[in-house]
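Example record used in the benchmark description.
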Amino acid sequence: MKLKETAVLIALTNAFENKKINTQTGLQFAADTYKLAIAINKKQKLKLTDKDTIDTVIYFIKEIAKGNDGLMGTRDDLMDAKTVNEITQMLESSWIEDLMWLMKDTLTMKATMYKTSFCLFKHCFLR
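Model output (structure tokens):
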């Protein structure tokens, strides 16, 4: 992991510990984490690429979902079982990465109906 990505991970960890990231559902957690990573990247002028930002966020989500023992779905998880289950499903289907690319495209006004439809179809019907 590079220095810039580590800086984002530290900031995300602090935000998580201070309960500034919504953990009610896996989707909310992923979206809030991605939005926060974008804000950190911009505020700190890190100039991370979109791919590096998304990879860093996915890494963070996996690590937080695992908890202290390094396994998802055990008693020491840092989030409730429902959220961890949703995150696990999103990671297994690559929905979480698709969501972040779709959010990036939406923020930069590059989202297309085709891409949005494909991501929704993939998530709803191919899992």
